[in-house]
Structures are given as structure tokens and as C-alpha cells.
Amino acid sequence: MSHSILRAPIVRGLFWAVVGFVLAAALVGGIRTAMGLDFWNTTVDWVIAYPVALLGWLMGVGVWPQWGREWLGGKAEPYALTGWQRYFGFSPDHKVIGIQYAVTFIVLFLLAGLAAMLIRIELAQPGLQLFTSDQYNAAMSFHGITMVAVAVATLLGGFGNYLVPLMIGARDMAFPRLNALSYWLVPPVAILLVIAVGMGGWDSGWTAYPPLSEVNKEGQVLFNLAVITFGVVSILGGINFLVTVTYMRAPGLTWFRLPIFVWGAISASLISFFFTQAFAAALLMVLLDRALGTSFFRASGGGSALLYEHIFWFYSHPAVYVMVLPGFGAALEILSHMSKKPLFAYRWAAGAMLGIVALSGIVWAHHMFTSGMDPALHAPFLVLTELISIPTGLIFLSALGTIWQGKLWLQTPMLFALAFVFNFLLGGVTGIYLADVPTDLHLHDTYFVVAHFHYTIVGGEIFALFAALYYWFPKFTGRMYSERLGKIHFWMMFLGFQLTFIPMFRVGIQGMNRRVADYPAAYGEYNLFISFAAFLLGASFLFFTWNMLASWFRGPAAAANPWRASTLEWQVSSPPPEHNFDEIPVITGDPYGYGGAGPAHNRPLGGLAAGSEGGS
Amino acid sequence: MRRDMKLMLAVWVAVTAASLAVSYFVLRTLSFPTPGAAEDGIIDDAFMALTYMATPVFGLVIAVLFVAMLRFRGSGGPEDGAPIRGGGTIPKVWFAVTTVLAVVLIVYPGLTGLIAIRQHAKPDLEITATGSMWQWTVDYPASGVKIAGAKELVLPVNQHIQVNVASKDILHSFWIPAFRQRMDAVPGQTSSIYITPDRIGDPSDAAYRLQCSQLCGVGHAYMAMPVRVVSQDEFKAWLVSQQKTAEAR
Ligand SMILES: [Cu+2]
Ligand SMILES: [Cu+2]
């Protein structure tokens, strides 16, 4: 027994990570001592020893036996773990990896949510109660970056990995081992962030603007390393989705017969693939400024702090769409299947997603209207940013057209998908105020911004994520969740969310700036109200967690197609067999054959969407 | 079908009207912090213009959601919804309408507001606010008054003021809610905004505070001080008293 635990992939990974770290740190220390410097320097040691530790971790967790040996002419071992143990090793199976991503990030979501609760305890009254200013900044920064990672990776990494191969009639992703490698880069990200908090955290938020991020505590170094690693996850995942969808679609599955969720996943992947390196490079430059004394962002050495803002937002605005596009996809998917109606204006919706990808790369400086950048940039970025409302409007058309005259089945996933439409409306509309230069001069860096981006990312993407979670839960686990607990979760979360963030718009307009532990007494009443609403929002996740755990272990067995849905993943058992399809299906129509002649859905494989020709 | 469409149109009109009324009577009068500068109008008007324009969009989405949830219910039975695919003229019309709306927004209040806020006369007074962790140094170069670690910001009423914003160390941001505008303090460069305080301010009002609004570490929340807008005579007297304190040192 103890023998097998010691051979568990995670234990081996940790062992080699520690060995790698200690060896590299000892080497650095030796060289430093020889140079007459201190043996230990947190920044230098982490920057050099962490990559070595990361390599040790990856090799130990399974890259070496299952992949690396081939590089030296040897023979790779097949993946041997079965049952629940599959989830704790280097599995190349996209379904295992999807669940690994989803569970890891839901756990991180709950952890970062807990940080939000602590933040709301602190902000309930003016003055400092729970935290010092420094601890507050650490909690706020941890909440920020962790939720950003959750928003980027849960739908795309979790649901994308699980569903895209199934939806396109493939047996796996194009690069299964690369896929496993991407996932196993995630635990180091989480571990680094937690260690950083243990070291006292860092106080520059998730944005890590220099010069602050070059002069603050060493937790910043771990933050940068974590986010660079996470960037690699994003880029590798993006490549894998793009290649998979391009080359592995089943016969007959043309681009315009893809389920809209697949469009969301590839649009988001295009952005991850093209833009992430900018953020990673910027954080690397911060590390070089810190560790080697370069001066990319230090004015005293000829650098520019504004340069960082440009590079940072060049990725981080598109990143919003890495979060939201799979959310659009999931919500539209669910609206169609739960309305029993074809997706309205399907080609327009798919085109809108690509339009958003294109525009996303040329709007970043709307985050910098008050940064002191050249005022000549204000007008073009105002114009380009407002244009995003056009493709986004098409997503709304698709959603509204789909439910109109449908047969709305108001189960938990559908409630979340409908709430997504409502929330994203408020998120989108309030975004216009921030893209408009005059209003942004006042609203920038206030709680108006906090409310706005929570409406787009939580109200939009995270509500879509929960829609997806309930909708595909039976497919993932082979069990049904409790509808009653699901609805309790929905209503508490929906009400808690509105009551938390609507007042934030106002208190922001009134003059409360964000990222502060303390504020003028004038904003006290609003903040007390917001805190209680936030506790309601937080409490809703108790019901969620209970539902997920209880249903996964003891829920009633789920049918192959409990929603009578028409897409491919529902035409195989719940959960799907190991290689998804015994026989690769042949696709003859679009994925939304509702209302057509004959039994339009719940068809056996092979006859999928027969009699409902695709397109318009 | 007809009835549903009529109901939807009615809800659309009702929600739009109701939100217009709430925007006009409640938001417009209650939301903004105390207005303190001549330029505030540009910003507050732009805010309200965007709000009014948003109401029909808001109304439409609410109306469709409401009617769909009320009238188009199913229970997962074998029945399907209508096989409408939306490939005809509706998306084209929608696309055209949203494009027009976006262009309108861009022109007004977007670019017109931008032009308005950029137009400023020759300043009557120039001051420089330099941020550092975690305080402001305020410089009145014409009078030779320079206050490091200022405890309050004193400004004259009805003077057009150029505020130069600079930083000694890291990013900070100069923001007074009563004056609406803000500007980041960036090391290595000086950026300016123009404000014309047009009424005597009450420094105990949270809107009359100079607040650093760019995250700058531990002292960020407290990098703030009251702003006192005083009559021009009082301002002159205050400058003289500051010159005297400086000489006495
Ligand atoms: Cu943006
Ligand atoms: Cu500051």
C-alpha cells in the first residue's frame, strides 16, 4: 500500500520538483557565495530554481515514462491507471483531462470566492477590521488572479477538452499527450500562488503594473512565474483546439455544421494562441528588471511604465473574450437545446464570434484613457471599442431569436443560460460608459468598473459556466444532479449577484475608488448592504458544492440523453465509452434539427440530423 | 403568435418608458457626486445620454426574456419549438440597426464629448501635483509655494487650472470625484488635465477629496486629502500665508 502511494504520479512529481529546486538553488547559492554575495536571494533563486523544479515535476508526474523516453529512442509506457486513479496521473484521455481541469478550477473558484468573502467582511464598514492594508491587498490580488485563471480555463480547458472531441465526432484531441502536459502545468500555478500568499502575498493586483511590481515584496516573483506558466497552458491548449477542430471533424461535419460551443472554443483558442505570449513576455521583463537590473519599465533607466500597460492590455483585453466566447457558445448551445429550437441566425452568431476575435486585438488602449498615453490614441480606441457592440449584438439576436416561440424547459441549466443573457446585457451596456472617454475619465478605477467586469465575467461567463456544469453533469459523471438543490443555488446566486453588484455601480459613480481596504464613511451604508448581499451570493455555493458531491457519489444514474438533445455527445452513453465512438459517425445535417419532420433528435448514430439540411 | 408579439412590444415600450423615467428622475439627480467644476457637465451629460440610449436596448431584451419565459414554456416533452432558423432579413436588419446605434454612440456622446473635454482656454493658474509613496507634493510655481506631504489641496474658485501630474516613484493617479477627471502620475513624464472649479467646496464632502486611484501598495487607500475650493481672495491670502511659513522655516 505505502509502496503504491510512493509510486503515485503526483508524489513522484513533487519529489522531483523538490529535488530540482534544491539542486538548482544550491548551485545558485554556491555561485553566489563564490562571488561574495549572500547564499540565498529569493528573487534570483526562484527565477532560476523554479523552471528546474517545474521540469522535475512534469517528468515525475508522467512526461518522462509516457513520453520523454521516446525522445531518446526508448519506448514509452502506456497509461496504466484505471478508475478514479485515472484523474491523478498523466492521462492522455481528453475526458479525464476535461474533468481534471474542471474540478481543479472549481476548487480554485471556491478558494478565490472565499477570499472575496473575506474582502467583503473587511469592506462592510469603513476603517480596518479584519485585515491590515497589506493583507487586504494580498487577498484582493489573490482573488483577482485566481478568478481570472478560473474564468480563462474552466470552460475552455474543462468543458472544451471534454466536449469538443465528442461534438466533432473525434476519438480524442489532436495531441493527447500535449493536452496532458498542459493540464499538469496547472497545479504548479496554483501551488505558486498559494506559496506567494503564504510569503505575505503581493500587492499589485492581477495587473502587476510596474514600477510597483518591481519594487514590492517577493510574492510578486512567484506571481509572475505562476502567470507565465499559466500562459504556457493557455497557448498549448489553444494550439491543440485549433488543430483538433481543423483536422479531426467527422466526415460530413463542415465548419457550418459545428455546434456553436465548438465555435466558441476555437474563437477563444485563436485569442489564446495569438495574444498570450504578450502578457508572458511583459511579466518576464518585470522579472528581468527585478533580478538582473534591466530597465524595460523603469524611467530612470530609460524604460517606460506605459510600455507595460500597452503590452499587458494587448493580451488582457482579448483575454476577456477567452473567458466570454466559450461562455457565449455554452449559453447559446443550452438555449437551443432547452428551447427545442434550432439556434437562431447560426451563421451570424459564428461570424460574430470571429468578428469579436478580430476586433479584440485592436481595442486594448481603452484601458488607458487616463494613463497619460498620447491623447491622439483616444479617438481611435474609442471608435474601435464601441464597434465591438455590433458582433456582441448578434450574439444577443441569436439568443433572443432562439428562445422566441421555443418550448422553454426551465431546468437549472436553462435558468443559468437565461440569466447569462440578462447579466451580460448589463455588463455589455455598462462597458460602453468605460469605452467612452469623457465618462471613463470619471469612472475609471472606481467601483463602477468593478461592477462592470463582474457583470461581464461572473454574470456572463461564470453563469454560462454553471449552465454548462448542470447541463453536462449527467454526461460527465453518468449521474443526475438534484434539480431542487440546483434551483436553490440558481436563485440564491442570481439574487445575491444582482444585489451585490448593482449598488457597486452607484457607489463607484459616487466616488469610491477600487482596490482599497478603507474608504470614506460616506460610502459605508452601501458597502454594508453589498457585503450582506455578497454573503448571500457566497452561501449559494454551499448548495452547489453539496449538490455536486452528493450527486456525483450517490445521484441516480443518468440516461444517455436526458435532455433529448441533438448534438453528438448525447448520442453516446453517459459517461461516454473510452474511445467515444465505436464507429466514427457520418454527419448529414446541422446540429440543431429541432422541429423538423419526423423524430428530429435523439437519433441513433449515423442518422444524425438526417432530413434537416444545415444553414439557413 | 400575433398576441405574443403584441405583448412583447407592449412590455418593450413599458420597460423602456419606465427605465427612461427612472434614469431621468432618479439616476440623474441622485447618482453623481457633488458637481464642482465647469467641465462636469460634459461628463455627466455623456453619462446620461448613454443611459437614455441604453433604455430601449434594455427594454427589448427584458421584453423578449419575459414573454418567452411566460408564454413559450415546455416541460421537456416530445414537442419541439418552431423550426425557425433566422436566416432571412431579421439578422440583416438587426445588424444594420446595431451598426447605426454604434455609430451614433461613437459620434455622440463619444467623439463630441472628447472634443469638448479637450477644448480649454489658456489656464489662469498652473499647479503641479507629484505623487510619491504615499503622499502628494503640490507646487504652485507662479507663487513659489511648494508643499511636500500636503494635508489638503487648496484651489481658487472660477479659475481655469492646469494640473500637471507627475510621479517620483511608481504609478499613482490624481482624481477628485467632484471634478470628474483623473490623470495617472507616471514616472518620467508629466501629464495634464484642466479643471475649472465653479463653486466653493465643502472639504468634508467625500467628493472633495484628492484620491490616489491607481493601486500603489500599502498606503494606496490613504493617499488622499481633502480639497478646499475657496474664493480667489481667500486663495491669495492662503498663498501669502504659505509663503510666510516657508520663509519662517
Ligand atoms: Cu478591455
Ligand atoms: Cu498612489
Topology diagram in text:
The complex is a heterodimer of chains A (616) and B (249).
Chain A (H helix, E strand, L loop, with lengths): L1 H5 L2 H26 L7 H30 L22 H30 L9 H35 L8 H9 L1 H13 L13 H4 L3 H29 L12 H33 L12 H35 L6 H15 L17 H10 L1 H15 L4 E2 L2 H24 L1 H7 L3 H31 L5 H28 L13 H31 L62
Chain B lengths: L1 H29 L9 H32 L1 E2 L14 H30 L6 E8 L2 E6 L4 E3 L5 E4 L4 E7 L4 E4 L6 E4 L5 E5 L13 E4 L11 E7 L1 H17 L1
Parallel strand pairs in B: 2-6, 5-11
Antiparallel strand pairs in B: 2-3, 3-4, 6-9, 7-8, 7-10, 10-11
Helix pairs in contact in B: 1-2, 2-3
The site of one copper (II) ion (CU) has 7 residues of chain B, from loops.
Instruction: From the 3D structure, determine the CATH topology of the largest domain in chain A.
Output: Cytochrome C Oxidase, Chain A
Radius of gyration of chain A: 24 Å
> What is the succession of H and E elements of chain B?
HHEHEEEEEEEEEEH
- In CATH terms, the superfamily of the largest domain in chain B is Cupredoxins -  blue copper proteins
Helical run tally of chain A: 19
Largest sheet of chain B: 5 strands, mixed
- Overall tally of structural domains of chain A: 2
The total strand number of chain A stands at: 1
Helices of chain B, by number, come to 4
CATH topology of the largest domain in chain B: Immunoglobulin-like
CATH C-level label of the largest domain in chain B: Mainly Beta
What portion of residues of chain B is helical? 40-55%
Give an account of the 3D structure.
- The complex is a heterodimer of chains A (616) and B (249).
- In chain A, 67% of the residues lie in helices and 0% in strands.
- By secondary structure, chain A is mostly helical.
- Chain A folds into 2 domains: 67 residues, no CATH class; 469 residues, Cytochrome c oxidase-like, subunit I domain (Cytochrome C Oxidase, Chain A, Up-down Bundle).
- The longest helix of chain A is centred in the N-terminal third of the chain and has 35 residues.
- The N and C termini of chain A lie far apart (60 Å).
- Chain B is α+β, with helices and mostly antiparallel strands.
- Chain B has 2 domains: 101 residues; 124 residues, Cupredoxins -  blue copper proteins (Immunoglobulin-like), CATH 2.60.40.420.
- A 5-stranded mixed beta sheet of chain B has the order 4-3-2-6-9. A 5-stranded mixed beta sheet of chain B has the order 5-11-10-7-8, covered by helices on one side.
- In chain B, a hairpin with a 2-residue loop joins strand 2 and strand 3.
- In chain B, helix 1 packs antiparallel against helix 2.
- The N and C termini of chain B lie far apart (84 Å).
- The mean pLDDT of chain B is 95.
- At the A-B interface, helix 5, helix 11, helix 12, helix 13 and helix 14 of A face helix 2, strand 1, helix 3 and strand 8 of B.
- Bound molecules: copper (II) ion (CU) (2 copies).
